[in-house]
Write a structure and sequence with these properties.
Elements (H helix, E strand, L loop, with lengths): L4 E6 L2 E6 L10 E2 L1 E6 L9 H18 L3 E4 L13 H11 L4 E4 L2 E2 L5 H14 L4 E6 L6 H7 L11 H12 L23 E6 L2 H10 L3 E4 L7 H11 L11 E9 L3 H19 L9 H6 L4 H10 L3 E4 L1 H15 L3 E5 L5 H15 L13
Parallel strand pairs: 4-5, 4-13, 5-6, 6-8, 7-8, 8-9, 9-10, 10-11, 11-12, 11-13
Antiparallel strand pairs: 1-2, 2-3
């Protein structure tokens, strides 16, 4: 694209402008900044502490002016504590006022579409206008754990995932066709609003489903940095308007660490490097501390893993991280950015989010008019 793009902050809004006055080919506004939380179990701590930290962090993020707070789903992991995001979502909604809260995401292949719809319709009834339902195709575990999670005899294999997505959306909106095999079955409680449905992924297949069904799409750059730009652009180009969504909406989820100096940010990010190596080795260990990093001697094979995952971690000063995020958003045409930050302790993790909020000029939003307590 000819011409250079610069960014100017307008509170929580950053607008792309061309210095040559030309038009921008993609949606030029990155208007929301959000948080993804994987509930890390830091080495030396416990799963109980990890989940309590999630609630504590959500309360702090709510005060900083971020837009969404999503919690992930992982199973049989020694490093990540959240296996039931729907339970954490309810707890976070009860403790916050401004945030949209959701799943990043529910692993739909393990569950009944009707049951998922009912869980999230219940959350929406209690906290109208604040609930997101992000769904994904990944197993979120090793093959043996995935088998243990299977819904039982007669459960549908992964190739039926598109049908599950279609049924889930119909049940969320009480819109089963008269000739549907389950016509007459309703996801309760019904109500005037529905959770916002997002399809999550790190591949072209997930983007294709999101475009086909006309739903917003969130791409996990922190899992697949190489294909992020191409896949998000492909989603936007292939998007088919639906009765629920007239225009494509793309969210880019990234791993980022901010600190007052670049050196400190990179030091904090070293635990992420060791975590990714262990992940590739299927090691079920807690999330590495800096002491773990200092004690670890990388083998040639592990250094190859580091090289393969290079680019998934963004670390630097707030200005450096902001510039990198905006460059990614421009290249992919993302409408929103969601940041996953894990550091070896709560203070540096929260400080990273505080610095990023300052860099983006975030301000707390007004609370929704209606919220259950």
């Amino acid at each position: 694209m000819p011409g250079r793009v610069c960014w100017r902050s307008t509170g929580a809004i950053s607008v792309a402008e061309r210095r040559d006055g030309g038009a921008v080919a993609y949606n030029p506004v990155v208007w929301k900044l959000s948080v993804l939380d994987q509930a890390p179990i830091i080495s030396g701590s416990t799963p109980v502490e990890a989940l309590r930290t999630t609630l504590r962090l959500a309360e702090a993020i709510d005060a900083l002016g971020y837009h969404r707070y999503w919690v992930a789903e992982h199973h049989s992991s020694g490093a990540l504590a959240c296996s039931a995001p729907e339970i954490l979502i309810g707890q976070i909604l009860a403790r916050t006022r401004h945030l949209r809260v959701g799943s990043g995401g529910v692993l739909l292949q393990h569950y009944s579409a009707l049951k998922v719809a009912e869980v999230f319709r219940t959350l929406e009834t209690l906290y109208p206008g604040r609930v997101d339902l992000g769904i994904g195709r990944a197993p979120g575990s090793d093959p043996r754990t995935a088998k243990a999670l299977a819904a039982g005899p007669g459960s549908w294999p992964l190739e039926y995932f598109p049908q599950r997505v279609a049924d889930l959306r119909r049940w969320l909106h009480d819109a089963l066709e008269p000739d549907h095999p389950f016509a007459g079955v309703r996801a309760m409680p019904t109500g005037p609003s529905a959770p916002e449905l997002w399809l999550l992924g790190s591949s072209a297949e997930s983007a294709a489903y999101a475009a086909l069904y006309g739903v917003p799409f969130a791409f996990a750059h922190f899992i697949n940095q190489r294909d992020a730009v191409a896949v998000v652009r492909a989603y936007r180009e292939a998007f088919r308007p639906s009765v629920y969504q007239s225009e494509p909406r793309a969210l880019l989820a990234v791993f980022a660490v901010c600190a007052e100096t670049e050196a400190e940010a990179r030091r904090l990010a070293r635990s992420r490097e060791l975590f990714l190596v262990r992940l590739h080795q299927n090691a079920r260990l807690p999330y590495p501390s800096l002491a773990d990093v200092e004690a670890h001697v990388y083998t040639p094979q592990e250094r190859a893993i580091l090289a393969h995952t290079a680019g998934r971690t963004i670390a630097g000063t707030p200005e450096q991280v902001r510039a990198t995020l905006m460059e990614l958003a421009e290249a992919a045409g993302a409408d929103e950015l969601m940041v996953l930050t894990i550091t070896p302790d709560f203070a540096t993790r929260l400080r990273s989010y505080e610095l990023l909020a300052e860099a983006f000029g975030l301000r707390p939003a007004a609370a929704p008019a209606v919220a259950a307590r």
